[in-house]
Amino acid sequence: MTSVLISLSSFGAAETGRHGQLWCAQLARAAGADSVEVRGELLRDAATELPPMAGLASVYSSPEGLWAEGGWLDSAALKRGIAAATTLGAQRLKMSIGAFGPGSHGSLWGLKVQLAETRVELVIENDQTVAAGSLPAMLAFFDAADRAGLDLGMTFDMGNWHWLGECPLRAAEALARRVRYVHCKGVQRLPAKWVAVPLADSVAPWRAVLRALPGDVPRAIEYPLVGDDLMAVTRDQVALLRSL
Amino acid sequence: MTSVLISLSSFGAAETGRHGQLWCAQLARAAGADSVEVRGELLRDAATELPPMAGLASVYSSPEGLWAEGGWLDSAALKRGIAAATTLGAQRLKMSIGAFGPGSHGSLWGLKVQLAETRVELVIENDQTVAAGSLPAMLAFFDAADRAGLDLGMTFDMGNWHWLGECPLRAAEALARRVRYVHCKGVQRLPAKWVAVPLADSVAPWRAVLRALPGDVPRAIEYPLVGDDLMAVTRDQVALLRSL
Amino acid sequence: MTSVLISLSSFGAAETGRHGQLWCAQLARAAGADSVEVRGELLRDAATELPPMAGLASVYSSPEGLWAEGGWLDSAALKRGIAAATTLGAQRLKMSIGAFGPGSHGSLWGLKVQLAETRVELVIENDQTVAAGSLPAMLAFFDAADRAGLDLGMTFDMGNWHWLGECPLRAAEALARRVRYVHCKGVQRLPAKWVAVPLADSVAPWRAVLRALPGDVPRAIEYPLVGDDLMAVTRDQVALLRSL
């Protein structure tokens, strides 16, 4: 059965700041989620916050790009991500490719070496930037990774494509065989910006997108979970995702 | 030439309640519609309301699902639908599959027997529920019907797919060969819900969807017809649909 | 490299009326555009306004349809368009097909003769009317032009498809081989109408649409350029288009 996760960013910066990600992770588990994704950008002090969450999370999300400005591999960022995932006992580290470009191909060998030294699995996410989220950028990256003999999987974020003017259904079809983890996110358009919403409120053809992706990979909620009864809201959304 | 119908629900519950469906049917015909679809859920007293509409309607829409909770065939509901269509002299009965599921396959033989006893043609509509409106549900149902030797056609509702996060264009392509009747419905998204609007106001690629469907099947207006001069509004919308 | 143009209608009727298209063309060039498209409908006096713009524009946009009501070729309108383009020294004349219909096929030979007498290249644009902007209309026209031995290219307007309920991505795929010029236009839907917006604010999958089109043809901005610092706004939008 597909496992259902919650990206802890779904609880919002205010809530995670007030209660900490451990509290949110426990709420997520109590609401029926199989596991959670811990967010690096919402940690105030990784050294004290990560160890107590050991065993609760299966994914650590790093806010750092894997390639830095200029196109060089940010080995230190990768190392920090692997260390955090290891502390959590999380199998997976999620990162975006950052400023990966044509000049970065050589560094894929360095990445390969570094990944061979850990049991943490790196999964690459499409974010909301042209360089690390548009379809040509993702295809070019995975193609280069293939040629370097790197077997990398993808975190497919269903919603981010809209921020870039990409068609999520076409993207799903083009990338399906890479996908090992899905970020579920509905979208609506305000006059000035896209916003993330629950799947059921999305203007996107989200069922068709989900069907175009592998059905047996973990799926995470990554849209705002808010409400007077946060536990009930979370339980409902987990149940919805599980029912798909 | 494609015939143009009006689903009488287009006039709204208030208007049909005030004037009755007979009055609405007469207005529809006067406005140029070839026929109408009578709505079961808007009848207050079928026994007195249906007979006077005999000859005016070519479709009767039943509000009941063909399979009830638990997945058993609701033969009584089907019987009621056939009876209403017969009273109207309507060739077609429109129903959704309700709670049809994997356990319902055996009952398709009973449906076949029951349909063999009437000249009324059953057409299955995609509604706004996952069980009776999502693409996998429709494909699974028609596949099972095929295997049971049932030659069932579909009422393709252009708008309902949006309520479910399905892509209407992909759905049209997947189901085109089943389609014998089209419910024309534009859609717009409000923050909290989808709403039905005239085709010309739709955010959907409605011309592309219509083109993906058979061009020689009846098409019905199923979006709000409102305005100070209801006859003029109706005449315009009928003319638009006829011009496509 | 793809050249970047600005359709001068992007500055709005008020601004072009106040300052004239020459002023706008100069601003466009100063902001980094390679060239501009002069708009016939925004000229008050072509005889005095066009000559000073000679050398600044590579496209002249005629507001007249190439075929008039009734389906006859409007040779005079074509002549006026060619004359304006010639005065400007513009290589291209952009027109829509107007009321071209099945009865117009014979007149394609007349068009062929008329085009043989000029070095100005006619490019046909999809507009916001059913007759001259829907996908079947465009395909039927180009098919007829082919059969008449006319090698006509297309101005693909990315946004206009939405006004007609067409899918821009499907249209791009169907017409890509015809396209010699692209009008870049984002869209948003207000309750009562579609509006043109910058690409980055579009609800459409504009990157996917652009990718489906030839990458080596000129692209023009055709969405509102407004702001306190019009030069800065224009420079930014030109730079964005150039970066694609």
Helical content class of chain A: 25-40%
Count of extended strands of chain A? 10
* Helix-strand topology string of chain A: EHEHEHEHEHHEHHEEEHEH
- Main beta sheet strand tally, sense and closure of chain A: 8 strands, parallel, barrel
Oligomer: homotrimer
Beginning-to-end CA distance, first to last residue of chain A: 11 Å
Apparent shape of chain A? globular
CATH class of chain A: Alpha Beta
Rg of chain A, alpha carbons: 17 Å
- The overall pLDDT average of chain A reads 97
> Which two chains have the most extensive interface, and how many residues on each?
A-B, 13 and 12 residues
Number of domains of chain A: 1
Annotation field: number of helices of chain A:
10
CATH architectural grouping of chain A: Alpha-Beta Barrel
Summing up helix and strand content along with how strands pair, one would put the structural category of chain A as: alpha/beta
What's this, in brief?
Chain A has 244 residues and is α/β, with parallel strands linked by helices. Chain A has ten helices and ten strands.
Please give a structural write-up:
Three copies of one chain form a homotrimer. The N and C termini of chain A lie close together (11 Å). In chain A, the strands form two sheets. An eight-stranded parallel β-barrel of chain A has the order 1-2-3-4-5-6-7-10. Chain A has ten helices and ten strands. Chain A is globular, with a radius of gyration of 17 Å. Chain A has helices at residues 12-30, 46-49, 75-88, 108-116, 130-133, 135-147, 160-163, 168-175, 206-212, 230-243; strands at 4-7, 35-39, 57-67, 92-98, 121-125, 153-157, 179-184, 186-189, 194-197, 219-221. With 244 residues, chain A is of the alpha/beta class. Chain A binds chain B through residues 169, 188, 199-208, 211, and chain B through 134-136, 161, 164-167, 170, 189, 191-192.
